[in-house]
Amino acid sequence: MSVPAIGFVGLGRMGTPMATRLAAAGYALQVADAVPAAVAAFLVAQPGAALLDLSEQDPLDELDILIVMLPDSNIVEAVLEEGGLAGRLRRGALVIDMSSSEPLRTTSLAQRLGGLGLRLIDAPVSGGVRGAIAGTLSTMVGGAGADLDEARPVLEHLAATVIHVGEVGSGHAAKALNNLVSATTVSVTVEALQTAARFGIDPAMMTEVLNSSSGRTNTSERKVAAFMLSGTFDSGFTLPLMSKDVSIAVDLAHRIGTPGDVSDAVAQQWRGIASFAARDADHTEMYRLIGASGSEERSARS
Ligand code: NAD
To answer: What is the pLDDT of residues 51-101, one digit of tens each?
Structure first.
């Protein structure tokens, strides 16, 4: 197959560096976002790319692949369906949902798109904004092997690791479960640091202990000093998005009959804090929000 023409929707914290890498790799790219300034900035930086106008209804026959990198399933479905892009793509086009969406909704969406002659794979990512810039993300893919084969050369510009998890939806399931584990390590690490501090152990010292002991995690190694103790809280992954992922994982567990006490408690904690945190609060702000009553934050927002 010749080099595919790609549509890319969602030029946010992750989407912009990912689309930038595809433009740099020489793909014919059409880009879209709900925020016109995000699109304008992208087109200035990548003059070879073109606008994909979401408000139009003209056919997009030239696109072979449509990548969406959007906040959640609601938005993915709204962009594709309800008079959206799915009806404009040519039959046989491949849709890749790289957002962290809801697995069971992805399965249903794939069936509905299949009815239009479209193929869908889910390829959510891990590795954060830094990984998106460097092209070192991990992607966990759900869908038909032949569809992944077609997508793989594109995905390999974005990710250093491509794992075919299973059927469509299983990438999104694996991603949510990964983030449940990741959020749990944030929660428990922050709580341990708070207890250490109350006991008189400096959090930096406690982090050094964790990182040289069996409590070491990605959180202790890569998040505590860099984003929490530094006070920068700028990992690039928001607290509401992490809370959404934890809820996706826990909802899935409940729906398929594997609920767990720890998972439920973590979901409740993240949902509670997300309810009063700023919409753009970084997820590493859990360091100062766990244990906060929320009244200060609520009054800051109102
Ligand atoms: P973001 O909020 O920075 O970007 C989302 C983009 O989608 C924004 O530019 C927004 O304007 C656009 N958008 C929203 N509604 C739209 C619509 N109706 N039509 C067109 N565009 C619309 O989010 P992000 O951090 O880039 O995350 C995107 C996805 O990737 C999420 O599902 C998130 O959970 C996941 N993710 C994020 C990270 C991270 O570190 N930020 C890491 C892995 C996965």
So the answer is: 999 999 999 999 999 999 999 999 999 999 988 999 999 999 999 999 999
Ligand 1 and 242: CB distance under 6 A: no
Check if 159 has its Cβ closer than 6 Å to any atom of ligand 1: no
Whether residues 157 and 237 share a domain: the answer is: no
By alpha-carbon position, which residue is closest to atom 30 of ligand 1? Answer: 99
Overall pTM > 0.90: yes
Active site residue 244: no
CA 202 / ligand 1 centre spacing (Å): 36
Position 302 in a domain: no
Return the CATH number at 214: 1.10.1040.10
Which residue type does 158 have? L
In this structure, the answer to whether residues 28 and 83 fall within a common structural domain is yes
Same domain, yes or no: 154 and 74: yes
- In the set 21, 88, 119, 175, the catalytic residue is 175
Contact predicate 155/124, CB 8 Å: no
Answer for the pair 150, 118: CB distance below 8 angstroms, yes or no. no
DSSP secondary structure code for residue 125 in this structure: E
